[in-house]
Write a structure and sequence with these properties.
This protein is mainly beta and 83 residues long. A four-stranded antiparallel β-sheet has the order 1-2-3-4, with no helix packed on it. It is elongated, with a radius of gyration of 17 Å. 6% of the residues lie in helices and 34% in strands. The chain has one helix at 29-33; strands at 18-20, 51-55, 58-68, 71-79. The longest helix has 5 residues, at 29-33.
Length: 83
């Protein structure tokens, strides 16, 4: 549901790109070039950390990965700016 002020409701049909990033890493190019099937790359985020949800590049919420009818989905745990 959308909790926007009535004045903002006219923008409800504007498309916004939501993204979730699992983590990042930095590695030497020689290591990138040696990646192949079965390779694993450790990321900087721990498995029990919440993931950042971004809208057009701006963090708006934090959540956790869940499965929903055979697809990855995200359960929103907290909205940025709320206690």
């Amino acid at each position: 549901t959308m909790n926007a002020a009535p004045a903002l409701s006219r923008f409800g049909d504007v498309a916004v790109r939501l993204s979730v990033e699992l983590g990042r890493t930095e590695m030497p190019l020689r290591d990138v070039l040696s990646l192949g099937e079965g390779s694993t790359v450790a990321l900087d985020r721990l498995t029990d950390e919440l993931l950042d949800v971004t809208a057009n590049g701006r963090v708006i919420a934090r959540g956790e990965v869940v499965a929903d009818r055979g697809r990855f989905a995200l359960r929103i745990v907290s909205l940025v700016g709320e206690d």
